Amino acid sequence: MQALLVAGDRQTPRSGVPVILRDAAGREVARAVSDFDGYVPFDALAYGTFVAEAGGQIVPGLAISRAVPDAQARLLLPAKGA
Predict the structure, then answer these.
(1) Would you call 40 exposed, middle or buried from its count of C-beta atoms within 10 A (0-12, 13-18, 19+)?
(2) Is residue 52, in this structure, part of any structural domain at all?
(3) What is the C-alpha separation between 9 and 77, in angstroms, rounded?
(4) For residue 40, what are the domain limits?
(5) For residues 61, 62, 64 and 68, what is the CA-based torsion angle, rounded to 10 degrees?
(6) Tell me: the pLDDT tens digits for 8-58?
(7) Which residues pair with 32 in a beta bridge?
(8) What is the DSSP string of the chain?
(9) How many domains does the chain have?
């Protein structure tokens, strides 16, 4: 999981959203803010399973492996002001 797309709905990216990435033990391994296109890149992560947290939402089971090193995940957040 090299990138996480943060969106308000299936088509609308959300920029400026803080995202925390945690390892399987719950330790924070990375923190970033979504860019203009809603993407949050995470570089130099070890293989393993991660949990992403943003805007009160959690995406569990994000895996980085030798088979899919450039996988992407999508995190949908409630509309602004909702």
Answers:
(1) buried
(2) yes
(3) 7
(4) 3-71
(5) 100
(6) 666 778 888 899 999 989 999 999 998 888 888 887 888 888 998 888 888
(7) 19
(8) --EEEEESSSS-B--S-EEEEEETTS-EEEEEE--TTSEEE--SPPSEEEEEEETTEEEEEEEE-SS-TT-EEEEE-PPTT-
(9) 1
